Amino acid sequence: MAKILVFNNDTDRMETYYRNEADPMPYNTNGTLRVREFRGSSKSNILWTTKRTMQSWNSQRYIFGGPIPVGFAFKRPYEGGHGNQSQHYAGVAFDVGQTLSAERRRVLWNSANNSGVWTYVEPISLTPTWVHFDKRFGSPACSTGGFPQLKRGSLSNYVLIAQDDLNTLGYRTNGLDGIFGSATQNAVREYQRTRGLAVDGIVGCNTWRALQEEVVGTGATSTTIN
Fold this sequence. Notes:
By secondary structure, the protein is α+β, with helices and mostly antiparallel strands. Helices cover 31% and strands 14% of the residues.
């Protein structure tokens, strides 16, 4: 059974669900996205996403009018498999259609690109054998893109990424809850101090880069929360 943390963008709250692998994801309609499909190859007992991501999936599935095979969706940073600031670590991205014919994959890409429900649809020239779309949100902390800046009071699935990184590196945040409270702020400050970064307790561009470069693909540690 998986513990699934969902950032509800409409109420600005974190919600917690428990689902079996064959159960639909929270906010999924008609059972078109099962937990096992969203999990993919991730071995984590804890998954996370957002309400709006699930709603966008529902709309995409309706617009496409048929099953959408999911190759990759969720990953935790320590599991790797994607770029350092990939939206897959935020639980808002899908790589789909790998088993479809090229013709059907183009239909899927066109439907996603024209739907207006996704924040970003990867150009088909960059993903010739799959379709990538995601529901990222917030202004990137780095000019080149990526995750948004986080500070005391922030609340979202992006906070979960930072907390996951910090705990994996041994900087305790008192749990994975998506809430940037005093414990998370103190963990950020201590991490910044030991890495020669500006000690401001804010996860901005440089801190994001340092955290992700250290954690992505390195595997879980004794202090990883799972």
